[in-house]
Design a protein that fits this description.
Elements: H1 2-14, E1 18-22, E2 30-35, H2 50-56, E3 59-62, H3 70-76, H4 89-102, H5 107-110, H6 115-131, H7 140-151, E4 154-157, H8 163-169, H9 172-185, H10 187-202, H11 206-213, H12 219-239, E5 242-247, H13 255-260, E6 265-268
Parallel strand pairs: 2-5, 3-4, 3-5
Antiparallel strand pairs: 1-2, 1-6
């Protein structure tokens, strides 16, 4: 009971994850939904009105549209250098041990993948074990566009730079150091991040969720990206009823305030 009361207080203090966007002269409502990139779509169950608002919308608008070409994806995750050449003996033993325990694969099986792709695979396996994910339980940030594809709804991307690909194109040396450090921290640190993300999401603590994923060094990049989206979002919602899905970190880019300054009325969906 105490936990439920606390979560209610947090939600009241920090606002909602779902916002209604309305402007005089524009037919119908559009919505902005902030989601968590770590959590699976099953965590959306119980979020009030989210599916009702989605069903009212004609188009899903996302940060980027997930790559449909499997051939292109497999090319992007290939590393130009074998993992064995990037890490020393002790690091190799660490990585192999983690992969065997959590992913049921050996380092040799994935040595041709980019380190960032290996980390993504590792986190996904941890997520599956935590949430007993089925085939239909996909990452929350891509869930709505996948449903829109099945239903024949329109999908539009806000950012053609494709964030996930930028991540995979990061320097192999940098990716390797990040992978080794994350593997040193271990499964428990990732589990705690999932659990913290779920608590914040269920409590609708958008500020806490935004801070969980946002590196201070990213602030200017986040704000610049949001600035570049405002005009495109205006055009989208003036043409069609849109369901705009964005990772929570972009709340810190003051997206809501910037759209309000363009003459739109934005209210929390409660």
């Amino acid at each position: 009971m105490t936990v439920l009361i606390l979560m209610g207080i947090i939600a009241e203090s920090y606002g909602q994850m779902l916002y209604r966007v309305k402007k005089k002269g524009v037919k119908g409502n559009s919505y902005i939904m902030f989601v968590d990139e770590m959590l699976p779509s099953s965590a959306l169950v119980g979020v009030k009105d989210v599916f009702r608002c989605y069903n009212k919308s004609e188009k899903v608008v996302c940060e980027y549209v997930a790559e449909k070409s499997w051939d292109r994806w497999t090319e992007m995750v290939k590393s130009p250098t074998s993992l064995g050449a990037l890490i020393g003996k002790n690091e190799r033993e660490l990585v192999d041990s983690v992969l065997r325990t959590d992913c049921k694969v050996t380092i040799g099986k994935v040595s041709k993948l980019k380190p960032a792709a290996i980390v993504m695979m590792w986190r996904d396996e941890i997520c599956k074990s935590l949430y007993e994910r089925g085939e239909d339980d996909v990452a929350m940030d891509s869930y709505f566009q996948q449903v829109a594809l099945m239903e024949g709804k329109k999908i539009e991307s806000l950012d053609d730079s494709l964030t996930i690909y930028e991540y995979l194109e990061e320097s192999i040396d940098v990716q390797t150091r990040k992978m080794v450090e994350e593997f040193r921290q271990g499964r428990e640190s990732v589990v705690k991040r999932y659990q913290r993300a779920e608590l914040l999401f269920k409590a609708e603590d958008i500020e806490g969720l935004s801070a969980l994923h946002k590196d201070e060094n990213e602030r200017e990049k986040i704000e610049a990206r949001v600035d570049g989206w405002v005009e495109k979002i205006k055009l989208c919602v003036e043409r069609e009823r849109c369901f705009i899905v964005l990772p929570a970190k972009y709340f810190a880019g003051e997206l809501i305030d910037k759209i309000e300054k363009q003459g739109y009325k934005i209210t929390e969906v409660k």
